[in-house]
Amino acid sequence: MLADKLKLTAKEILEKEFKQAMRGYKQEDVDKFLDLVIKDYEILHQEIEDLQQENLRLRKQVDDSYKKQQQPVQTNTTNFDILKRLSNLEKHVFGSKLYD
């Protein structure tokens, strides 16, 4: 899950305090902290990208499935098959009267 991958929470970022040196914050502490923040943002960005790709794939799959449902079912009947069935129906309905 995404929360397992992140090293920092919003609360930790907000409450982070750096040691003060002679002229302000210690540069090494700030750089290390910013490296962690950057890594977290990269993880979030990659997770968002993956989810967007999955979303597109699933939407396409749903669209394809819907289109397949809308297409009429095609059978492999030929004109000969249709004529043969029609002839059999006529024989059944009209009997031998049709051919007399």
Q: What would the keywords be for this entry?
A:
two-stranded antiparallel sheet; 100 residues; mainly alpha; 2 strands; single chain
What is the approximate shape?
A: rod-shaped
Tally of individual helices: 4
List the strand order in the largest sheet: 1-2
Low-confidence stretches: none
> In percent, how much strand structure appears in the residues?
under 5%
Q: Give a quick account of the main beta sheet: strands, pairing sense, barrel closure.
A: 2 strands, antiparallel
Give me the oligomer status.
single chain
CA distance, first residue to last residue: 81 Å
Average the pLDDT over all residues and give the rounded result.
Answer: 83
| Global structural class | mainly alpha
- How many E-type strands? 2
- Helix percent reads over 70%
Order of helices and strands: HHEEHH
What would your notes on this structure say?
With 100 residues, the protein is mainly alpha-helical. The protein is built from 4 helices and 2 strands; from the N terminus they run ααββαα. A two-stranded antiparallel sheet has the order 1-2. The chain starts with a helix and ends in a 6-residue tail after the last helix.
